[in-house]
């Protein structure tokens, strides 16, 4: 028999298994599950098994959704949407509030069901996931009430298709459904085939609270069901999952004009500086990487440690790792539960094998019976090693060292992803400097993996685009009403590809040049084409490459700050006004006046488009900062060439971006002459680059460039498909802009500024945590 003194020495917990009787009785009563469409469950069709990953036990049989099932769900959502949107904000808020309350009433049931279906430890489902589910519905009940006040003039999109993964089944459901409903949309949601059960339990809650029929529809199935939803008649797709599948969805939606939010993979850095609290950082590793079996897209799976403390840190890491308990997920003392499915376990182990074969050393990480893998990390790992490049999505991290802060930033950014980062330092100066320089959508300082409904979440680069949570998340489910084009701005019909021309025999008296890197350039090959009043350069692929290279070197423009950029823009307006008569001869006096006013407008905004501090978890200061993308490519409208060009370029550069712009194809000369105004206004070289020519040929090349982080298209809709497909290479967002009167008020405003920036959410400890709030993580 174990003595008390022995227990006090080891401090080990005994078994404490959560009772799952109520959940198993529910599963037994339900038998085979149908889909939830138009407020009721359908008769089960062809089914598949969902299993407890910790034992292999079959939990339930769930229907495999067909294309017909998806169409029926979309029809139900479409019928319900107009009535749901017509409800007052208060009425929608009351429904969301009721959902939150019923989730709270069934917290224990939902926690056990989630653990059985997913394999995560019960204390994670009970203490983190389900409370956050309720929090999302409470938070968005408030947004439903405030929608028209906070977002005047915006309207719901319509029907939203939503596809969620298996790592946070119920939380991801709330993350997507709550803002969609608050905005006035209806939804068709497809849960992951491994973990559909809590979504089906949520469908019962929708019935219990009297949610109108068709507002929420849930269709279960595998990837074929998800593909059918992507093809269906929905107005938006919100997808969380792998980068590869996300890229395929973006390609499938190319040219459709439907909205898309992608929250994809990650290979997030966990940076430990020399002055960090190492014991706290070790607990951060546990929270970030090993809880939830490492099946977290934002897990800090790349541990980067200052060389001066690396040996001490690794000693502590090994000791802590050895004490983590791997075992039955329903045991309250389990730290690490089961991998969701044998297929995922095999994938994790295969990456580890490839990593060790390429020279890395695996510490821990042993495969155990069933769907279990012990925590571990790969050390002595080269940057090109498969374990360093691929998202492992399991309880295996990588361990590397650095010497300086600059090297830490370089290593942190040495990835195609940009979802999250965790920084550990006792110096606020050091920590915030790294937070600003690391390319990630979410940064935790001296903490890890904290989430809240008020804090936007989403990535950079191949981690996707769009945000979920907070005001930014609400905007993903709202749209501006259609813009009515002015009669004189209707020249958006496709124009023929420019023909090469020479001055000989043309009777043309003006010849323009490209404007790249602050200087006039002849196009590669010297080709020109005829336009009204002269010749324009026929730019090509090499000219686009040179322009993007020049734009990437204009980083000091963002570093100037809003006030510095505003001064340059005011100077630009002054210099254009001094030459107003000259430019009026090339366009019209009214267009020049509108162009000058447009410059003043964005000069005013340059230092006033603010970030926010959101009220999230107690004990944390959560700043949501608008950051420039870097380089934005754009195609400008054909009509009103001067104001059309400036209406796109100005909001982008006011926010600190550099641009490569393809101006009006039919009349580019008024824009070509702007180089003189730029040069006399102290605009740094490379901030604005102009490449004229055949837009249908140049735009896809520009959209495909890896250094272009976002693309704006204000051309014919039929050009959009090629641009969208090209942009999927590095998953850049495409802002498609309706034609309008570019001299009027519809051609300016905050919507352009929002598309010129992306949110970075920075979490910082603030004051003392209140009693009972638990760890800084979560």
Short description:
This protein has 778 residues and is of the alpha/beta class. The protein has 28 helices and 35 strands.
Q: Report the sheet with the most strands, covering strand number, pairing sense and barrel closure.
A: 10 strands, mixed
Helix content bin: 40-55%
How many extended strands?
A: 35
Overall radius of gyration: 28 Å
Number of helices: 28
The top-level CATH class of the largest domain is: Alpha Beta
Counting helices, strands and paired strands, the structural category is alpha/beta
Please, what is the average pLDDT? 91
Low-confidence stretches: 487-496, 501-509, 771-778
Beta-strand content bin: 15-25%
**How many independent structural domains?**
3
CATH architecture of the largest domain: 3-Layer(aba) Sandwich
Distance between the termini: 38 Å
The order of strands across the largest sheet is 14-17-18-13-12-19-20-35-29-28
Q: What is the CATH topology of the largest domain?
A: Aldehyde Dehydrogenase, Chain A, domain 1
Name the CATH homologous superfamily of the largest domain: Aldehyde Dehydrogenase, Chain A, domain 1
Gross morphology: globular
What does the model show?
By secondary structure, the chain is α/β, with parallel strands linked by helices. The protein folds into 3 domains: 250 residues, Aldehyde Dehydrogenase, Chain A, domain 1, CATH 3.40.605; 186 residues, Aldehyde Dehydrogenase, Chain A, domain 2 (3-Layer(aba) Sandwich), CATH 3.40.309.10; 245 residues, Aldehyde Dehydrogenase, Chain A, domain 1 (3-Layer(aba) Sandwich). The chain contains 28 helices and 35 strands. Helix 10 links the parallel strand 10 and strand 11. Helix 11 packs across helix 12. The protein is globular, with a radius of gyration of 28 Å.
């Amino acid at each position: 028999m174990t003595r008390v003194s022995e227990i006090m020495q080891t401090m080990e917990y005994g078994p404490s298994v959560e009772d799952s009787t109520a959940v198993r009785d529910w599963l037994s009563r339900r038998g085979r599950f149908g889909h939830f469409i138009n407020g009721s469950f359908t008769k089960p069709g062809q089914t598949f098994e969902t299993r407890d990953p910790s034992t292999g036990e079959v939990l339930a049989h769930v229907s495999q959704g067909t294309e017909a099932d998806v169409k029926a769900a979309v029809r139900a959502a479409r019928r319900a949407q107009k009535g749901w949107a017509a409800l007052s904000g208060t009425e929608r808020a009351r429904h969301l509030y009721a959902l939150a309350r019923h989730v709270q009433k069934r917290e224990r049931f939902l926690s056990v069901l989630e653990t059985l279906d997913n394999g995560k430890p019960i204390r994670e489902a009970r203490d983190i996931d389900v409370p956050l589910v309720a929090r999302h519905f409470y938070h968005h009940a408030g947004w439903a009430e405030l929608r028209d006040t906070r977002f005047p003039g915006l309207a719901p999109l319509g029907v939203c298709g939503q596809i969620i993964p298996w790592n946070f089944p119920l939380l991801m459901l709330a993350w997507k459904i709550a803002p969609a409903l608050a905005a006035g949309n209806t939804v068709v949601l497809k849960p992951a085939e491994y973990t559909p059960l809590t979504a089906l339990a949520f469908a019962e809650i929708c019935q219990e609270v009297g949610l109108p029929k068709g507002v929420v529809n849930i269709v279960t199935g595998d990837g074929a069901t998800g593909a059918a939803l992507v093809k269906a008649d929905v107005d938006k797709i919100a997808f969380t999952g792998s980068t590869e599948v996300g890229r395929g969805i973006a390609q499938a939606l190319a040219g459709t004009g439907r909205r898309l939010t992608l929250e994809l993979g990650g290979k997030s850095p966990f940076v430990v500086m020399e002055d960090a609290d190492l014991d706290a950082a070790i607990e951060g590793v546990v929270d970030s990487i090993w809880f939830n079996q490492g099946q977290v897209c934002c897990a800090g799976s790349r541990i980067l440690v200052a060389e001066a403390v690396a040996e001490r840190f690794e000693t502590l890491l090994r000791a802590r790792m050895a004490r983590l308990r791997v075992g039955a997920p329903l045991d309250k003392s389990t730290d690490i539960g089961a991998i969701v499915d044998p297929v995922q376990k095999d994938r994790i182990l295969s990456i580890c094998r490839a990593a060790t074969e390429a020279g890395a050393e695996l510490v821990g990480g042993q495969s155990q019976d069933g769907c279990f893998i012990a925590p571990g990390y790969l050390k002595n790992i080269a940057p090109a090693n498969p374990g360093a490049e691929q998202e492992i999505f399991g309880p295996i991290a990588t361990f590397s060292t650095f010497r300086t802060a600059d090297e830490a930033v370089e290593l942190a950014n040495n990835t195609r992803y940009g979802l999250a980062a965790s920084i550990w330092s006792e110096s606020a100066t050091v920590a915030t400097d790294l937070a600003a320089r690391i390319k990630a959508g979410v940064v935790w300082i001296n903490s890890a993996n904290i989430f809240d409904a008020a804090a936007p979440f989403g990535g950079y680069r191949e981690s996707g685009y769009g945000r979920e949570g907070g005001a930014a998340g609400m905007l993903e489910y709202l749209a501006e009403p259609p813009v009515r084009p002015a009669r004189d701005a209707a020249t958006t019909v496709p124009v023929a590809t420019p023909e090469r021309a020479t001055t000989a025999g043309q009777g043309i008296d003006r010849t323009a040049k490209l404007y790249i890197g602050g200087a006039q350039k002849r196009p590669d090959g010297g080709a020109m084409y005829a336009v009204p009043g002269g010749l324009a350069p026929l730019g090509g692929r090499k000219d686009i490459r040179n322009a993007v290279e020049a734009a990437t070197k204009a980083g000091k423009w963002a570093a100037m700050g809003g006030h510095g950029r505003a001064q340059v823009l005011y100077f630009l307006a002054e210099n254009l006004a001094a030459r107003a008569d000259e430019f009026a001869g090339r366009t019209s006096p009214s267009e020049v006046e509108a162009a000058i006013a447009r410059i003043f407008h964005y000069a005013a905004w340059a230092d006033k488009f603010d970030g926010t501090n959101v009220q999230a978890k107690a004990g944390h200061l959560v700043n949501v900062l608008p950051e420039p993308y870097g380089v934005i490519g754009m195609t400008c409208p054909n009509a009103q060439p001067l104001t059309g060009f400036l209406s796109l370029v100005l909001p982008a550069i006011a926010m600190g971006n550099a641009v490569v712009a393809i101006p009006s194809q039919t009349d580019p000369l008024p824009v070509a002459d702007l180089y003189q105004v730029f040069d006399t206004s102290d605009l740094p070289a490379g901030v604005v680059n102009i490449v004229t020519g055949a837009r249908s040929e140049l735009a896809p090349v520009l959209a495909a460039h890896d250094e272009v982080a976002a693309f704006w298209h204000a051309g014919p809709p039929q050009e959009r498909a090629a641009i969208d497909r090209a942009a999927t290479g590095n998953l850049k967002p495409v802002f498609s802009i309706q034609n309008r009167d570019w001299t009027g008020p519809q051609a300016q405003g905050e919507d352009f500024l929002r598309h010129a920036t992306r949110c970075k959410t920075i979490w910082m400890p603030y004051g003392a945590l209140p009693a009972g709030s638990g760890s800084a993580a979560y």
